[in-house]
């Protein structure tokens, strides 16, 4: 029986799956099985899974109708045999020592649930590296995604997350919703299990390939934060409001800069300069640093606009998703 079962939901990502499986073949230890769940893809990755299996990787491939990534993960857990379930997104690449380090970490410091940070591999595109900076920098997200500086208690994300079989047996599977990993982590913590950040087990996360898709992604993240607030009253922290405050504050500064005095634009100019030099120091690439500036603006504006829209509709007007639906989700119905 393997120690770890890697659960990977897939939808029309055969090339990315090939890269992910290749990185798993290069692991320094193979104390795992791979459970690949094809969620109704029109461009399946069966051939990539079979090719990896023919080279000796323990891959179990399952194809099912399209029902969403959470249902796909649950489908995989029902068929997994490991003591721990580990979740990666299909657009991740795993460093060679990941599972060797993970086993050592859990042996030295047992955890019920764990997560690790993400980073950009040197082979990624300039845009992917810039987006990775925008998603992980303390200047944009407050370090809530596993950074060295954090303003909120760590919450694992499903691009790099794991928990024990005991957690699954008590808490159950993922709900089909946006920010399902935050919901899952909340349920795990409320069930009395411990959650920890393992900075020594990062993954390389490709993320979105262009800024338009990135905006849509973070916009949905902003809206889902209000859903989580309705599901778990009291879970909304001040750090979650920063992007919305940034949208309101930067809008005010832009208007004042245009109609009153250009000096009102100075705070924005200083923040953008800080973003540029922080990205330059991290990436050592002028191209990435230049791209990180609009990516960081999109990160905050996209999330902030989604948050403000959902707050206005769902909290103030009690419209959008029916509040009763939020309550049904909270009760797991």
Give a short summary of the structure:
This protein is an alpha/beta fold. 52% of the residues lie in helices and 13% in strands. A 7-stranded mixed beta sheet has the order 3-2-1-4-8-6-9, with helices on both faces.
Report what the structure shows.
The protein has about 325 residues and is of the alpha/beta class. Helix 9 runs parallel beside helix 12, helix 10 packs across helix 12 and helix 11 crosses helix 12. About 50% of the residues lie in helices and about 15% in strands. The strands form 2 sheets. A 7-stranded mixed sheet has the order 3-2-1-4-8-6-9, with helices on both faces. A 3-stranded mixed sheet has the order 5-10-7. It has 13 helices and 10 strands. It is globular.
Question: What key phrases describe this protein's structure?
Answer:
333 residues, alpha/beta, single chain, 13 helices, 7-stranded mixed sheet, 52% helix, 3-stranded mixed sheet
Strand order of the largest sheet: 3-2-1-4-8-6-9
Strand content: 5-15%
- Helix/strand-derived category reads alpha/beta
Write down the Rg: 20 Å
Largest sheet: 7 strands, mixed
Which H/E pattern describes the elements?
EHEHEHEEHEEHHEHHEEHHHHH
**Quick one: overall form?**
globular
Give the mean pLDDT: 91
List the uncertain runs. Answer: 329-333
Helix content: 40-55%
End-to-end C-alpha gap = 34 Å
Count the strands?
10
What's the helix count? 13
SSE order and pairing:
Layout: E1 4-10, H1 14-25, E2 32-39, H2 46-54, E3 59-64, H3 69-79, E4 84-87, E5 92-93, H4 98-108, E6 113-115, E7 118-119, H5 126-136, H6 138-141, E8 161-164, H7 165-171, H8 180-190, E9 195-197, E10 203-205, H9 211-231, H10 242-259, H11 266-283, H12 286-316, H13 323-330
């Amino acid at each position: 029986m393997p120690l770890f079962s890697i659960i990977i939901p897939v939808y029309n990502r055969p090339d990315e799956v090939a890269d992910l499986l290749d990185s798993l073949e290069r692991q320094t230890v193979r104390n795992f099985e791979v459970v690949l769940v094809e969620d109704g893809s029109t461009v399946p990755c069966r051939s990539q899974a079979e090719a990896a299996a023919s080279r000796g990787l323990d891959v179990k491939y399952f194809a099912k109708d399209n029902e969403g990534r959470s249902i796909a993960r649950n489908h995989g857990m029902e068929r997994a045999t490991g003591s721990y379930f580990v979740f990666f997104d299909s657009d991740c690449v795993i460093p060679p020592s990941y599972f060797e380090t993970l086993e050592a970490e859990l042996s030295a410091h047992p955890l019920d649930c764990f997560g690790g940070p993400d980073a950009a591999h040197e082979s990624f595109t300039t845009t992917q590296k810039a987006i990775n900076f925008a998603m992980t920098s303390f200047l944009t997200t407050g370090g809530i995604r596993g950074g060295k500086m954090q303003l909120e208690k760590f919450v694992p994300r499903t691009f790099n997350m794991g928990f024990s079989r005991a957690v699954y047996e008590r808490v159950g599977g993922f709900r089909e919703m946006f920010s399902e990993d935050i919901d899952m982590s909340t349920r795990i913590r409320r069930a009395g299990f411990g959650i920890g950040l393992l900075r020594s087990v990062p993954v390389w996360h490709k993320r979105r390939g262009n800024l338009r898709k990135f905006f849509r992604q973070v916009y949905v993240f902003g809206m889902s934060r209000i859903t989580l607030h309705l599901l778990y009253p009291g879970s909304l922290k001040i750090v979650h409001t920063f992007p919305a405050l940034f949208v309101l504050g930067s809008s005010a500064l832009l208007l004042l800069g245009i109609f009153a005095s250009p000096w009102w634009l100075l705070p924005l100019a200083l923040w953008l300069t800080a973003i540029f030099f922080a990205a330059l120091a991290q990436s050592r690439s002028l191209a990435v640093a230049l791209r990180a500036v609009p990516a960081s603006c999109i990160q905050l504006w996209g999330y902030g606009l989604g948050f403000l829209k959902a707050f206005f509709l769902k909290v103030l007007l009690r419209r959008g998703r029916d509040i009763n639906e939020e309550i049904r989700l909270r009760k797991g119905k």
